[in-house]
Design brief:
Pfam families: Na_H_Exchanger (PF00999). Residues 223-248 are annotated as: Disordered. One of its GO terms (cellular component) is plasma membrane. Keywords: Antiport, Ion transport, Membrane, Plasmid, Transmembrane, Transmembrane helix, Transport. The protein has helices spanning 2-34, 40-61, 65-80, 82-87, 98-125, 129-139, 141-150, 158-166, 172-184, 189-221, 225-229. It is an all-alpha fold. The chain folds into two domains: 2-92, no CATH class; 108-225, no CATH class. Helix 2 (40-61) crosses helix 5 (98-125). It is globular and about 60 Å long.
């Protein structure tokens, strides 16, 4: 209850700060576009700075900076596309997001470099079986059960629901929060356990979802219609109405 009482205010501050910053900046860009005060370069820079601004504002408010940045992106996109919905104006140019995508790619490379260092450290210290059990659970039941509950009442089949839950990779978010926990906790058992759990979970996800995703998908969906019944069978070659895109 103490942890929950600490987390809720952090999350509420993040929701407010992220929404206000994202919506306000997008509205200002729309106004500047109508007045022809912006160039393509300035829009690219603003798009890059906006989540950093949300991060900084939320830090000053003592809120959850990552939730704020995520909400900021949602609010920014919604308000930025408001002229398209109202007047049928042209959509924001794809080049507006080029700078932030390139920066994101570089930051992701750096993050995986530090993750590799954490893997080496974890393997040198040795692996404890309770930590391995926690990682296995995080990649299976802890992931699958909430997904199955979330799909209650939907039109997806049980195989499709299970596939969405099974093909849920643990990557960037797990690394970020794992390193945050490692840096925030005092040196010792708790910090080391957080680091090792994060490292083994992500490493297991790389192996499971990187090497086994195709096998998992095939085992849950079965062979393609053409392979199962041939070109002359009923429905052969027709796309499934309930195909699930699990790339996210």
């Amino acid at each position: 209850m103490q942890a929950l009482g600490t987390a809720v205010p952090f999350a509420l501050k993040a929701l407010v700060a992220g929404f206000v910053v994202g919506a306000l900046v997008a509205w200002l860009i729309n106004m500047a576009d109508r007045a022809e005060w912006m160039t393509e370069q300035s829009r690219r820079i603003v798009v890059l700075v906006t989540p950093l601004l949300a991060y900084t504002v939320t830090t000053a408010m003592d809120g959850n900076v990552f939730v704020a940045s995520f909400v900021c992106g949602i609010a920014f996109r919604y308000v930025r596309q408001a002229p398209v919905r109202r007047r049928g104006a042209s959509a924001p140019h794809a080049s507006d997001f080029q700078l932030i995508e390139d920066t994101n790619s570089m930051a992701t490379m750096c993050m995986w470099f530090f993750f590799g260092n954490a893997v080496v450290l974890a393997m040198e210290e040795g692996v404890h079986w309770p930590t391995v059990g926690l990682c296995v659970a995080a990649l299976t039941v802890v992931r699958v059960l909430p997904i199955m509950l979330a799909f209650l009442g939907s039109k997806f089949s049980w195989q499709e629901r299970l596939m969405v839950g099974a093909l849920g990779p643990r990557g960037t978010t797990s690394i970020v929060f794992g390193l945050l926990a490692f840096n925030a906790l005092p040196d010792g058992l708790y910090a080391d356990t957080a680091l090792y759990a994060m490292t083994l979970t992500v490493l297991g996800s790389v192996l499971l979802h990187g090497g086994g995703s195709v096998a998992i998908a095939r085992s849950l969906t079965g062979p393609p219609p053409s392979a199962a019944g041939g070109p002359g069978s009923p429905g052969a070659g027709e796309p499934d109405a309930h195909v699930v895109d699990t790339r996210g």
